[in-house]
Amino acid sequence: MSVEAGPRRRLEPDARRAQILSVAVRLFGERGYADVSTTDVAREAGVARGLVNHYFGTKKELYLEVIRVMLTVPGVAIAGLPDGDLPTRVDAIVSWFLDVVSRHSRSWLAAITAGGMAGDTDVDRVIAEAIDAAADAVLTAVGRDAGGPARHAMARSYVGLAVSTAREWLQRDVLTRAQVHRLLTATLLTMVEQVFQDA
Amino acid sequence: MSVEAGPRRRLEPDARRAQILSVAVRLFGERGYADVSTTDVAREAGVARGLVNHYFGTKKELYLEVIRVMLTVPGVAIAGLPDGDLPTRVDAIVSWFLDVVSRHSRSWLAAITAGGMAGDTDVDRVIAEAIDAAADAVLTAVGRDAGGPARHAMARSYVGLAVSTAREWLQRDVLTRAQVHRLLTATLLTMVEQVFQDA
DNA sequence: AGCCTTGTTGACAGTCTGCCAATAACTCGA
DNA sequence: TCGAGTTATTGGCAGACTGTCAACAAGGCT
């Protein structure tokens, strides 16, 4: 696997930026944040290291872009909310979540835990936005999207449950999809019927 | 605030190690993992930087010790499991969890999310052990501690819910303790009565 | 071809980490 | 009291990584 060290080539900024970002997504997805140096990204992109800083500023900013890509990719298919009674809609939103997370399991589950940078202000903000989006989807699906910040916080908590449960299924492989499905539908039904009224 | 740069003093290894660890716990608790350098720890401990490496090896190993301290401190008061019917015991374990996490909120909640090092193999193992311990406590409290690995995984998922809900209460301050309590008791009851049977 | 824009490079300074020989603080026996 | 031995402690060295910037050259335009 030669690194194709051909003569210097000139790309349009958008193309070169996208190429570097693609390499960064792959590397940060495989290893953590600390284990990937800008030198690694530059080398695998066949580019001088300074160019990475030129396009993305600092390493942390590059990582922010990477996380943003990993977390917002599944959000595109958020459409398709079925009607019906509450159990039906609960079943639908859980199925949708499991489909999305299983398709992008490696990157999405790795990013939602902020593989290597939790605690940082900016990183936490990006993750919080992704969780907010998922919480919005849940509230909309169950038809309880009208509610104060407390209800929204409860929805975020439920997303936390969904994430940790999905991890037991996809990463630790100790739960089946059917078990995860039943756990998430039962708890969501309970929350809607018994807990949301407190908010 | 002078740094007390008195003459070199000689402490017993255990004492010096404990002192450095104490400083490290405080610093890593306040700021993240990346924002704290070994130089910072050494300076605030009034010690040469090389001594930190002498006692703890690498920076990551020091951080492992810090996380272990933060996460195992609350585990001491795990005793006192009351008898009674299921709702009573559920109420008791939730109250116990909220007491513990509110007392050590800053350090425990920060550590359980691995402030700055999630994705690392060793760090994840320490965190997983802490979650396992909490899951054991939950299963014991509800009297369903006999069960396969699947049931244990469900208990870990519930701990994930408890953590994310506690964060909405203690860090984001958008839920009251009463709301958190009600959410966690209702969902735990549902899980015990409707979901645990699948395992 | 020659010029000009600008994508791209290479190197420099600063910081951090792990490591190790040298130093000196404290103990113990004469 | 004092010298020798143990070892806690220090300071510096080499390597790696990051951010910055002036200089270079690839490709377009006349």
UniProtKB/TrEMBL annotation, chains A, B:
A Pfam match is TetR_C_46
Q: Which PROSITE patterns match?
A: HTH_TETR_1, HTH_TETR_2
> Which residues mediate DNA binding here?
37-56
Q: Where is the HTH tetR-type domain?
A: 14-74
Q: Which domain of life is it from?
A: Bacteria
The answer on whether this UniProt entry bears the keyword DNA-binding reads yes
**Keywords of the record:** DNA-binding, Transcription, Transcription regulation
Protein name, entry field: TetR/AcrR family transcriptional regulator
Native organism is: Paractinoplanes lichenicola
